[in-house]
Automatic annotation (TrEMBL):
Superkingdom assignment: Bacteria
InterPro entries: Acyl_CoA_acyltransferase, Alpha/beta_knot_MTases, GNAT_dom, tRNA_m1G_MeTrfase_C_sf, tRNA_m1G_MeTrfase_TrmD, tRNA_m1G_MTases_N, tRNA_MeTrfase_TRMD/TRM10
Class of this enzyme: transferase
Record's protein name: tRNA (guanine-N(1)-)-methyltransferase
Sequence ranges assigned to domain N-acetyltransferase in this UniProt record: 234-386
Localisation: Cytoplasm
The protein's assembly and partners: Homodimer.
HAMAP family per UniProt: TrmD
CDD domains assigned to the protein according to its UniProt record, in alphabetical order: NAT_SF, TrmD-like
Catalytic activity reported: guanosine(37) in tRNA + S-adenosyl-L-methionine = N(1)-methylguanosine(37) in tRNA + S-adenosyl-L-homocysteine + H(+)
């Protein structure tokens, strides 16, 4: 695999020569080239950035050096250009496995406020382009992400890992978090290594490790345990800010039905603006379902109660033309499944006269709680977590 890096801070990528990739370079498994973007500037100051059109703080990386770099590096249909950016698709092990199948990766590392958008649009015309984010936090540039993605991809290349078994074993975690590991001494700081690991009984060890991995995942990442798709394989995805407009549209459609069922327009969800939806999308864990690109279902959850032991569920939405096919029930099961550790009960409210909703919630094990305060015209239903 050939890997090229375009950056205005080439020294930031020095680690490429140090850790893992070092050995792979020697073995010819990977061919790494780091390029200073200023190589493709022609003015005395080797200018790579300029002020943003439309105003605003900071600077933007100019398109010309990237265009010339792509030309010089022969970027073509056999190349995958990776733009590391906070607005990219989340980097996952699945994406790492996909990128590891490519012959050539070119990392375009941004800085300042980012790269002129025309660079991405241009690249899409000549090569495969992936805009990838390392995670929902802000870095100062794309180099760190390029390094992390490189390590995750290169270690998957056949012949790279000294002991392939560990890759095999690793891939058998079935999406669970890693189990705790121990080595000598058997006692340290007054703490003993679990006896089962010193039993020599591989079956017992494997069972203990599986249970530890499952328990740790349930505690720390219940979202990894939750079904990530409907029975027909339609994925249930974490909502992103860009979903706000479609969520608003679906919400309006669903709450018009609620208004008709409850003979009242005095329902907050019906009056929310796009900014209101954007605000709560940032606050609640929200999941959406799309069919052929159309957003057809959504649900949200967040912690509540003095110790966060209550999982507030809300905005269970199903496109009117798709209701009655179990999508609402599936969204409810999903939002329950992703409730974090420490949650002991679920709570939600719906229109007092929303008979159809009442039937679905009761069928799902919820019970009406007239003893609990509810918004005007609504009732609360709760369910203990098993
Ligand atoms: C590329 C410029 C900085 C970002 C203004 C701060 C990835 N997971 C991630 N977080 N941040 C990045 C990232 C940040 C970058 C660039 C990637 C280029 N910046 C900008 C927008 C707000 N400054 C990233 N992958």
């Amino acid at each position: 695999m050939r890997l090229d890096y375009l950056t205005i801070f080439p020294d930031y990528l020095a680690p490429l020569g140090l850790s893992l990739p070092g050995k792979a370079v020697e073995s010819g498994l990977i061919d790494v080239h780091v390029h200073d973007l200023r190589e493709w500037t022609h003015d005395r100051h080797r200018t790579v950035d300029d002020t943003p059109y439309g105003g605003g703080a900071g600077m933007v990386l100019k398109p010309e050096p990237f265009g010339e770099a792509f030309e010089a590096l022969g970027v073509d249909e056999h190349t995958t250009v990776v733009f590391t950016t906070p607005s990219g698709e989340p980097f996952t092990q699945r994406l790492a496995e996909e990128l590891a199948t490519r012959q050539r990766l070119v990392f375009a590392c941004g800085r300042y406020e980012g790269i002129d958008q025309r660079v991405i649009d241009h690249a899409r015309e000549v090569a495969e382009v992936r805009e990838v984010s390392l995670g929902d936090y802000v870095l100062n540039g794309g180099e760190v992400a390029a390094l992390a993605i490189t390590e995750a991809v290169v270690r998957l290349l056949p012949g790279f890992m000294g002991n392939a078994e560990s890759l095999v074993e690793e891939s058998h975690t079935g999406g669970l978090l890693e189990y705790p590991v121990y080595t000598k001494p058997p006692v340290w700081d007054g703490r003993e290594v679990p006896m089962v690991l010193r039993s020599g009984d591989h079956g017992l060890v494997a069972a203990w490790r599986q249970e530890q991995a499952r328990r740790r995942t349930a505690e720390r990442r219940p979202d990894l345990l939750a079904p990530s798709a409907l029975d027909d394989g339609t994925p249930i995805e974490r909502a992103v800010p860009a979903d706000a407009a479609e969520v608003l549209t679906l919400q309006r459609a669903c709450w018009v039905q609620e208004a008709l069922a409850n003979d009242s327009l005095d329902i907050p969800a019906l009056h929310e603006s796009l900014d209101d939806v954007r605000a709560w999308l940032a606050e609640w864990d929200t999941y959406v379902v799309r069919r052929s690109g159309r957003l057809v279902g959504a649900v949200r959850g967040r912690r509540d109660g003095p110790e966060g032991q209550v999982w507030d569920i809300g905005r269970v939405m199903v496109a009117p033309d798709l209701q009655g096919a179990g999508l609402g029930r599936a969204l409810l099961e999903h939002i329950e499944a992703v409730a974090p550790a420490g949650v002991t009960s679920y709570a939600l409210f719906t229109g007092a006269a929303s008979a159809r909703n009442h039937r679905m919630y009761k069928k799902a094990g919820y019970r009406l709680r007239r003893d609990l305060p509810a918004p005007p015209g609504a009732v609360v239903l709760t369910k203990r977590r098993r």
